[in-house]
Amino acid sequence: MHFVGSDIRNPNYIYWKAENIEAYLKGQVETKSLSTAWQEKLIEDSIECASAILVSTPDLLDIIPKAIYYPVLIDLEKFESDLKNNIGKVGQTFKTQKVKILHAPSNPEIKGSTEIIRVMSELANERQDFEFLYTKDLKRNTGSNYTVSRYELFQLYQEADIVIDQMIIGWYGLQSIEALLSNCRVVCFIDEHLKQYLTKDCPIVNSSLLDLKLTLSHLIDEVISEELDFDFQKKWVKNNHTIDENPIPIKLMDS
Q: Are residues 166 and 54 in the same domain?
C-alpha cells in the first residue's frame, strides 16, 4: 500500500495548522487529530492486509509509524525534455531584470500563501532589487486548484531565481524538486521533528514564516553575487529522487 498525503492525513488538520501556524511554530497549541475516523479504518485495514506500507512524505510516519518512508520520485529525462520543449510556448511573465522570486501554490490555503504575501510586502518596503510573482494574481482559469497551467509553470521555473514552495505542511514536494532542476534556489518549511529525514547535503533552504524575510534577503544577495551551484542541486535530485538511484525498498509479492 502506498499513501501520499490527504488519503490518510485529516485535511482539517492542515487547515487548522495554516490558521495557527505562528502559534504552532512557537509550540503554544495542541495539534488536532491527524486522521479522520474513515482514514483510521483505511489504515487499520491496510496494516492487516498489506505486506508493506509506503508513505511519500515522512510526516505520514506520525500517522503510521510502521510504514516505510519512500520519497517522491521524478522521471529526470522526461522532465528535462518537457522543460526544454516548453521554451517559448508561453510568453515572458516576469516584467523586470531584477532578482525574480516565484510562489506558485497548488492550493494557496494550505501553502501559507497569505502569510507569504505579507512577508513579501514587508521585504519590498526594505529593498527594491527583486520582483515577486504570486501566480494567483495572474488570475488564470485552470479548472482546478492550480493557479497556473503546467506549461506556464515550466516557463516560470525558467524565469525565476528563487521559488517559495510551502510554509505550512512541513515537508517539500514535487515543485521543490522540479525547481531545483530548473536552476532555482528553493525555500520550504521543514518541520523541526522531520529534519532527521533530510539528507545532510539537501540544497533546499529551510525556513519558517518567522524567519522567511531574512532567509529571502540572504538568497537575493546570493543570486546577485552569483554564489550558486546548480550542478550540485541536479546531482542531489538524481541521487535522492529518481527510480534508478532509489529502488523500492521492499520485495513486492508476486501477484
A: no
> Which residue type does 170 have?
G
174-181 and 230-241 helices cross at what angle (nearest 10)?
A: 140
CB under 8 Å to 121, separation ≥6 — which residues? none
> Quick one: 41 and 83 in the same domain?
no
Of the residues 34, 54, 69, the one at which a domain ends:
69
pLDDT in tens, the chain (255 residues): 999 888 899 888 889 999 999 999 988 776 678 889 999 999 999 999 998 999 999 999 999 999 999 999 999 999 999 888 876 666 678 888 999 999 999 888 889 999 999 999 999 999 999 999 999 888 777 777 777 888 888 889 999 999 999 999 999 999 999 999 999 999 999 999 999 999 989 999 999 999 999 999 999 999 999 877 789 999 999 999 998 898 887 665 443
> Are residues 95 and 204 both part of a single domain?
yes
Instruction: Say how many domains are in the chain.
Output: 2
140: left (phi over 0), alpha (psi -120 to 50) or beta: beta
Do both 82 and 12 map to the same domain? no
The domain of 181 spans 76-241
**Amino acid, res. 206:** N
Q: Cα 99 vs. chain centroid, distance in angstroms?
A: 21
Q: Are residues 103 and 226 in the same domain?
A: yes
Q: Is the pTM of this model over 0.70?
A: yes
> How many Å separate Cα 5 from the centre of its chain?
13
- Helix 113-124 × helix 212-225 angle, to 10°: 60
Tell me if 235 is assigned to some domain: yes
